[in-house]
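Please describe our next protein:
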Amino acid sequence: MIMEQQTEPREIQIRAAQRFVRISPFKARKIAEIIRGKQVEDALTILKFMPQKATFFLEKLIKSAVANAEQMPAPPAVENLYIQKVTVDEGPTMHRIQFRAQGRVNRIRKRTSHIVMNLAERPGSEEKPPAKSARR
């Protein structure tokens, strides 16, 4: 007996990565947590008004991922893309020294990060539900 396989529409995933970014992974993860799961346009707006250094790198990475999406054979609409996954891993650490009193030396660690972002298309072009009112 031959069973027919149902072909479900595959979820489109778009990947972009930045390696050896000169920022501490701890600091970059704080910002990555904020934008994870958000629509691309909403995430870019949030990042635009944040003062942290990591926002520059994440904004650049989102724009790169959107550009990657536009190069696909059947490009998805940017309005339907959301940030599915953001990982911030440690890169190599550069070691520097700072001279101190009495012939001592302090070690300075200049940390780097590897940031990987996956965008995905929301199934269907659903409209956002209306915002809940503040009344109780």
Notes: The helical segments are 25-35, 40-48, 54-70. The beta strands are 13-21, 81-90, 94-99, 105-110, 113-121.
